[in-house]
Amino acid sequence: MDGLLIGRFQPFHKGLLEAVKIGLSKVDKLWIGIGSSNKNNEKRNPFTADERKEMILSSLDPKTLERVKIFFVPDTGDHEKWTYHVDSIVPPYDVVFSNDEFTLTLYKKRGKNVFELPLLRRDTISGTNIREMIIADKDWQDLVPEGTKQVLLKIDAKNRLSKIL
User: Fold this and answer.
1) What pLDDT digit, counting tens, does each position of 69-107 carry?
2) CA triplet 53, 59, 62: central angle to 5 degrees?
3) How far apart are CA 42 and CA 85, in angstroms?
4) Residue 18 region by backbone torsions, left for phi larger than 0, else alpha for psi between -120 and 50, else beta
5) Residues with Cβ < 8 Å from 131, sequence gap 6 or more?
6) Cα angle 158, 160, 165; round to 5
7) Could you give the dihedral angle defined by the CA atoms of residues 154, 155, 157 and 160, in that order, rounded to the nearest 10 degrees?
8) What percentage of residues in the chain have a pLDDT greater than 90?
9) What ranges make up the beta strands (E) of 51-161?
10) What are the start-end ranges of the E strands in the chain?
């Protein structure tokens, strides 16, 4: 059985790492869709699709990497057609993993199996919060996997975010 986890991963944090682990506990292969892959250098989407892919790949162990494949999923601007657009990009899947209510609703509408992921420490572990913490020079490093931390430091995320936010 194969699954789909789709998100923006801005950045890939420990909550999303837990989502990958939960997904892989239920399926053999997990397709990871990097949503809004055509967006970057903006407030909600400051990182490029390639940077987000690097964050994910550098945060997963080799055994996990054997079971995942990453796909870029650009926005379409049409919510009704979006899930079909995703299907044109990723291989067939049996279940969609998400904690986003809108995503779950769109897939449920199509009769797809969905699994609502629990939110891990959502009060602190969210992309928005982590981006704000980076700018404010607060301690954000413990909220992301080591691989993501290294990518964020390499690309000077603080400087980029300071210009955008």
Assistant:
1) 999 999 998 888 999 999 999 999 999 999 889 999 999
2) 100
3) 23
4) alpha
5) 10, 11, 46, 161, 165
6) 90
7) 150
8) 88
9) 68-73, 95-98, 114-116
10) 2-7, 29-35, 68-73, 95-98, 114-116
Global model pTM greater than 0.85: yes
pLDDT in tens, 128-149: 999 999 999 999 999 999 999 9
Q: Is-contact 151 55, C-beta < 8 A? A: yes
Beta-carbon-side half-sphere exposure of residue 33 (alpha carbons within 13 Å): 25
Compute the CA torsion angle 55, 57, 60, 63 (nearest 10 deg).
180
